[in-house]
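Note to self: the last two entries modelled the partners one at a time, which told us nothing about the interface. This time every component goes in together.
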Amino acid sequence: MSNYRVIFEDPEHPEQPAMVLVPSDNWLEEAKAGLLPPIAVYWALQDDEQQAIAEGRHDTFKHDPAKHAAQFTAPRIGPLTEEEAIEYLVMKDIPRHIWSQEYNRPMFKIVKTEDVPSNRQFRNAWRIAA
Amino acid sequence: MATIKLQGSSGGGSVTLTAPVTAANRTITLPDQDIDFGNISGEGSVKAWATYSMSGTPSLTAEGGMSSITDLGTGTPQFNLDIALPAVNGSPWSTSSVYSNGAYYPVQTGARVTSTTAYQVYCGSSATTRDDWQIGYTGLVR
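The predicted structure of the combined assembly is written out below.
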């Protein structure tokens, strides 16, 4: 099991509670074994999908077959440490506007697993401190 | 006469076909459709599945085809896919195993594909209320 979790908030939905991202152990093993494609492969897919959303055609959206196939055919990036894998996962599974822009307070934090409160009432009242 | 076409990959790795360990001859019969073994299989197959818990802190007990689970709020896990879907559709399913109080109830649930890289599940306690199941099962067929 991973030693890390990612707590994040969405500045576009400030009413939502802090969210918790938990990595898959299998995926983490893939990352440590060097089986992941460059993160740009996922970003290219996300860019196309975001454009479809902006143009109001998300319901009928289909990925470009060549870009989709790059998930399997792109050269692998090599083994990552667990910390590097978590950073990769942040950039893959958390919406880009949360981690790529600067806000007046942090919108995400990588924390130790044991630091995540198990009481949801407490967690729902969380705001990520600087 | 059929032909076999081998296409090189950018990584330069080789492909190995291993014969069976017995003396029997074996045949691989391919269907008349494209198949992507790297994406588990062709259309109409399970792309991801998980046994998970939303009780306390969220966790994936066992899974396949997922990169992570995101706790979006009470009774609302989001399952992030290892491999993006080719389109924004599919058939996600969800069922409760152990309800939040340790009992086995036939509670309501829902799920929807929200993007090519994720789908959300709604763990119900009634038609309008969500709850953190102790154990849930889910998957996505496409």
